[in-house]
Amino acid sequence: MLFNSLEFLIFFPVVTLVYFLIPHKIKWIWLLICSYFFYMCWNPKYALLMALSTVITYASGMMIDRFGRIGDAKKSRRLKNMTVALSFVSNLGILVFFKYFDFLLDNLNPIIGLFGIAPIVPKFDVVLPVGISFYTFQALSYTMDVYRGEVACEKNPFRYALFVSFFPQLVAGPIERSKNLLLQLHEKHTFCFERVKSGLLLMLWGFFQKLVIADRAAILVNEVYNNYTNFGGVEILLATILFALQIYCDFSSYTDIARGAAEVMGFSLMKNFEQPYFSKSIAEFWRNWHISLSGWFRDYLYIPLGGNKRGKVRKYVNIMIVFLASGLWHGANWTFVLWGFLHGMYQVIGGVTLPARQKLCTWLGINRHTHFYHLFQRLITFLLVCFGWIFFRANHVSEAFGMIKKLFCEWNPWVLTDVTGMGLDSAQLIVLVFATMILFLVSSAHYYRVQLRRYVLDAHLIVRWSLAFLGIFLVLIFGIYGPGFSESQFIYFQF
After folding, report:
1. Rounded Cα–Cα distance for residues 226 and 214 (Å)
2. What is the DSSP string of 291-355?
3. Residue 3: which H helix or E strand, with range?
4. Would you give the end-to-end CA distance of the chain in angstroms?
5. Distance (Å, rounded) from C-alpha 216 to C-alpha 209?
6. Which residues are catalytic?
7. What is the DSSP letter of 275?
8. Rg (the chain; Cα; Å)
9. What is the pLDDT of residues 77-121, one digit of tens each?
10. How far apart are CA 198 and CA 456, in angstroms?
11. DSSP 192
12. What backbone torsions phi and psi does residue 477 show, to the nearest 5 degrees?
């Protein structure tokens, strides 16, 4: 069930209405039932995988809590370490099988072929369960949080199951921490009209980003990237910039809708984006992009590896490990691995050259605190990020390098006088430009800490309802609903 589907527009109001009508003590049971129904709308049998991950991590938490009460500190630590290792190995094993089985096989067969061994041909198809990367990482974070003593283990297995399966953020995040969401499942949530208005407004903004901007930009992006041999460097550059816009609006829209839906019911989910394209460095970009995943890798991989406390060389090695893992997390394709490697190298090169760049600015008399210099930093960062998006979006590594070659060798700016051959007609392009301008203005306001949503909610009744109906009008009239007006899947569902 997609957020931008008719089914969800029926499902969510019904869930919310019943949620506020039933007694507090059974609200969480209702949400658990609805969350599993929401997930089973894709494929009922894969709900068993989510349940298995839930059972493993719940049992791990209970065992860690029990072992923590053993008087022998050395034995207690050893047993807790074994439990954490077992939880990670089993959960990641499930993730690797369903997400990377075909990828591993495709890379293994050429190697064993060199030794005269027949290729392995599986007798079954492995289908990627939607959202498996998200709920697996969320469940594993609970294991680590209990191990570190940051949260008490949840005694109720079904309430814990709701933490893993909470439907607003189940399939594409944000990846919540147990010390935030799990604790909220014990709180009493009553109907609050102000909170409902705020949540619905955030959801409306999410629908605008998805249907008006992301899905419209996707038309041009898909046309160019799927037929790149028919286009030159200028078209590829335009498509890449629009993909940067598409993936941001697509993913940000999902998390905004998720946060808004949760807020309507009284829950607070973490922000996943903080104007990432306004960043002045790649390091800052990753502090503002997919914040829940970046934080997960920082807390549960980078810091356990030693972080930056074991010298610069080890720090840079740890950074590369994290970004290679992040790239592979996004998909079973070498394009994602190269994308992660590239961002890791950005960070390493940026860190190594920082002193030299600072000295060069001093020698040239450049003031690094001016708005012009910050604008220059943002432009360079955006271009580096866009270059990385080529690998992320390309279907194959060879296609990525083919597009990069065209990007530098085939340059004809006059093709921009007529972009109709790239899938969007003039009217669609004008709508995209104006919608992007709205996005830029809203993002700029948020960057400078202007609480636009608060201003709208506090505005006069006529102004507030006028803006709400204008937003609905823009989504309904200018939204893209996919081929044959069917809802378009969110990009991060495939991860």
Report:
1. 17
2. HHHHHHHIIIIITTTTTTSS-HHHHHHHHHHHHHHHHHHH-SSHHHHHHHHHHHHHHHHHHHHHH
3. none
4. 16
5. 10
6. 330
7. -
8. 24
9. 899 999 999 999 999 999 888 888 888 887 877 787 777 777 777
10. 9
11. -
12. -85, -40
